[in-house]
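User: tokens in, sequence out, please.
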């Protein structure tokens, strides 16, 4: 009889466990790391300089500092000359190929559809082109790293002025403000050059500082037995990642997180059933562990959690994402001959 009672209690316990609704709430942790270059040239490369060759009109409208001062490679310091990387920029003068006044008519009508007023608006259109290119050179090896054909003479751009109330006002707007108009047009193209190149060169060779918040999952079901322990462990996770910096090794953070990792691994064993509530609980543990390992620069462990997430068959997409991110991190660290994305860069 006693054995039957115990068996009945055990069955009730299991049934109660399955009956526990698992709700997951988002929580966020702050993470900091350097995004590593996709085309690394060496950790010792730390400076860059810009040599700008400006055609006559462009050099009249812009100083060298106005042009080169906007170039930036994250993780590199710009120096006046002889940088580890040299950007050689050549900018032509602007070529105006068409100026034309255009117009439109605006009508107002009454309820019967009769035209009650008519007004003509005029604007000036200017077609223009430029020819510019750049060569990015490794100053240590004197070899070209990448070349840019920024603008070609057959690339046409069109400027449209604001509207005027008369033909003459639209026509004269260019003649009276020619220098300002040309400077604005050239500036627009130069801004395009450095916007494009800054992004490329940082991705290729730079070290972009990432400071963001990343999502994890926490049990949010009020009656679930893991809600309180999960919150306790969340506080440990948040406190550990709050201490993360770009420069400091993550060893101490790993040490702080060991009890959390043990707790999460324990949940996998604690909720082994092939039922949705248990699968959902395991999903949160695999996902959280995978992202924790990613931000601790442990790609192999992150990949293992991603594969476990796929096998868990609750949200395979997140599992595949973790595997992809882990493989990408592993390849990036190998390519850059680094073991971490946290280091002193100056």
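Assistant: Sequence out:
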């Amino acid at each position: 009889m006693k054995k039957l009672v115990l068996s009945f209690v055990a069955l009730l316990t299991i049934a109660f466990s399955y009956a526990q609704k698992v709700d997951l709430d988002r929580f966020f942790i702050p993470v900091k790391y350097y995004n590593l270059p996709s085309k690394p040239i060496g950790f010792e490369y730390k400076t860059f300089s810009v040599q700008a060759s400006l055609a006559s009109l462009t050099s009249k409208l812009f100083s060298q500092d106005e042009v080169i001062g906007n170039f930036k490679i994250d993780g590199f310091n710009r120096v006046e000359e002889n940088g580890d990387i040299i950007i050689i920029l050549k900018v032509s003068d602007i070529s105006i190929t068409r100026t034309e006044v255009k117009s439109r008519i605006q009508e107002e009508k009454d309820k019967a559809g009769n035209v009650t007023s008519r007004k003509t608006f005029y604007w000036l259109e200017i077609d223009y082109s430029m020819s510019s290119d750049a060569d990015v050179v490794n100053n240590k090896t004197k070899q070209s790293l990448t070349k840019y054909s920024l603008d070609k003479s057959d690339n046409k751009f069109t400027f449209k002025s604001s509207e005027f109330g008369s033909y003459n006002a639209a026509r004269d707007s260019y003649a009276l403000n020619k220098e300002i108009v040309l400077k604005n047009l050239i500036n627009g193209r130069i801004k395009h050059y450095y916007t494009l190149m800054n992004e490329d060169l940082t991705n290729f060779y730079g070290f972009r500082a990432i400071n963001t918040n990343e999502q994890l999952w926490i049990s949010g079901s009020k009656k679930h037995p893991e809600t309180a322990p999960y919150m306790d462990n969340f506080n440990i996770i948040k406190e550990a990642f709050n201490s993360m910096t770009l420069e400091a090794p993550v060893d101490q953070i790993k040490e702080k997180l060991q009890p959390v990792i043990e707790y999460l691994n324990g949940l996998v064993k604690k909720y082994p059933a092939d039922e949705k509530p248990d699968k959902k609980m395991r999903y949160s543990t695999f996902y959280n562990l995978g992202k924790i390992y990613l931000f601790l620069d442990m790609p192999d462990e992150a990949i293992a959690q991603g594969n476990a997430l796929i096998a868990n068959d609750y949200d395979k997409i997140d599992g595949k994402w973790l595997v992809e991110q882990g493989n990408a991190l592993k390849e990036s660290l190998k390519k850059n001959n680094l073991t971490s994305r946290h280091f002193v860069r100056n």
